């Protein structure tokens, strides 16, 4: 058992963070993190630890301006664990329900050990941050990052966990690596603090989408149906300052009981020009304030959560996959986000003045 646990430890330092990656998937490389994560995930798939085997998914780029990526994933829709009943954004953790302390040991791929003491401790408890497989995967290497797993925190973002999520992206040199978060009321299925990690080898509109300055470090997405807020992290940025600015918005949304999704991806720096597209120099952090969704997930083509708002659409059935259009997707994203965005925009503009 000791040797097994040792093999799962993943130690890293900030010197391993990569802030510039090639935009092209053809010229992408792999870091130590990419290699370890991919190998362990593929071994878990080969050993049958998932609810279904993830074959190559039928994928298409929807015609139109936004280039939405639709993927048919019927098995996920049919075989995933039933989502927990959610009635409030700040529901306490319930140890009697499924949570990530109950997963089988072989589902744990990595136990993270970041060598940065400033954010390692939660009260007096030694940290245990785990990367576990999502047994109902939505794409290649779909895992769950569970910060402070033994502290049994509810699905509410804190700065320490958000830092870990950004660090996972910085450890990868693959521009297809994505990280995201669904709050309760925004299609989170388990009330135990976690982020999604996965690779999607298709470019998304938001990687280069135009934005305009709102205030402080906060920008707003323009010309996109999923109205939201965006921050960027550059090599010369102070990570703590950027995270605190993001958390200013998140805390406000929590205080107002407003559901939200977060999507973190590589992208063009906000002041970039088209001739700089060969390299991605920024990490873009998107935050969407949105309509709450409580109760069972619907039977529509897709549920608008972190992936879908980011432009990646796991589709539940063949009929919807064949008929889906950019117009229909844009209508859903606008309906989910626009009203809430404009309701909170002025207040967020005020509190982001840092």
Give structural attributes.
disordered N terminus; 354 residues; three-stranded mixed beta sheet; single chain; 16 strands; globular; alpha+beta; eleven-stranded mixed beta sheet; 27% helix; 8 helices
- Give the CA-based shape: globular
Total helix count?
Answer: 8
Radius of gyration: 19 Å
Name the average pLDDT: 90
Beta strand count: 16
Give the oligomeric state: single chain
Can you walk me through this structure?
By secondary structure, the chain is an alpha+beta fold. It has eight helices and 16 strands. The protein has an eleven-stranded mixed β-sheet. β10 and β11 form a beta hairpin. It is globular. The termini are far apart. Residues about 1-5 and about 115-125 have low confidence and may be disordered.
Please render the helix and strand layout as text:
Elements: H1 2-8, E1 9-12, E2 21-22, H2 32-46, E3 59-61, E4 69-72, H3 74-79, E5 108-114, E6 129-133, E7 143-146, H4 159-171, E8 177-182, E9 195-199, E10 211-215, E11 218-221, E12 229-233, H5 239-255, E13 260-267, E14 279-280, E15 282-289, H6 306-309, E16 312-315, H7 318-323, H8 326-351
In short:
The protein is an alpha+beta fold and 354 residues long. 27% of the residues lie in helices and 21% in strands. The radius of gyration is 19 Å and the shape is globular.
């Amino acid at each position: 058992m000791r040797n097994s646990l040792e093999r799962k430890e993943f130690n890293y330092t900030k010197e391993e963070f990569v802030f510039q990656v090639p935009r092209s998937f053809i010229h992408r490389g792999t870091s130590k993190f990419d290699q370890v994560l991919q190998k362990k995930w593929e071994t878990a798939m080969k050993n049958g630890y998932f609810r279904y085997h993830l074959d190559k998914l039928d994928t298409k780029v929807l015609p139109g301006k936004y280039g939405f990526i639709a993927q048919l994933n019927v098995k996920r829709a049919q075989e995933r664990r039933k989502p927990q009943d959610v009635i409030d954004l700040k529901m306490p953790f319930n140890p009697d329900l499924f949570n990530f302390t109950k997963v089988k040991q072989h589902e744990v791929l990595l136990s993270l050990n970041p060598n940065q003491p400033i954010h390692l401790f939660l009260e007096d408890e030694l940290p245990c941050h785990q990367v576990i497989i999502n047994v109902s995967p939505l794409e290649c290497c779909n895992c769950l990052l569970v910060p402070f797993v033994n502290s049994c925190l509810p699905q509410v973002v804190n700065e320490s966990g958000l830092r870990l999520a950004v660090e996972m992206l910085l450890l990868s040199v693959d521009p297809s690596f994505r990280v995201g978060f669904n709050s309760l009321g925004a299609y989170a299925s388990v009330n135990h603090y976690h982020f999604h990690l996965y690779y999607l080898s298709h470019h998304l509109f938001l990687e280069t989408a135009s934005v305009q300055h709102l205030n402080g470090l906060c920008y707003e997405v323009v010309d996109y149906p999923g109205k939201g807020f965006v921050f960027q992290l550059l090599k010369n940025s102070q990570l703590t300052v950027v995270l605190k600015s993001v958390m200013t918005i998140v805390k406000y949304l929590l205080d107002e009981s407003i559901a939200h999704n977060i999507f973190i991806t590589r992208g063009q720096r906000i002041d970039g020009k088209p001739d700089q597209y060969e390299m991605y120099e920024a990490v873009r952090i998107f935050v969407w304030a949105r309509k709450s969704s409580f109760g069972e997930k619907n039977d529509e083509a897709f549920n608008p959560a972190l992936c879908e708002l980011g432009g990646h659409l796991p589709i539940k059935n063949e009929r919807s996959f064949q008929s889906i259009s950019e117009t229909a997707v844009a209508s859903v994203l606008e309906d989910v986000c626009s009203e809430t965005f404009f309701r909170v925009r002025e207040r967020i503009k005020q509190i982001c003045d840092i």
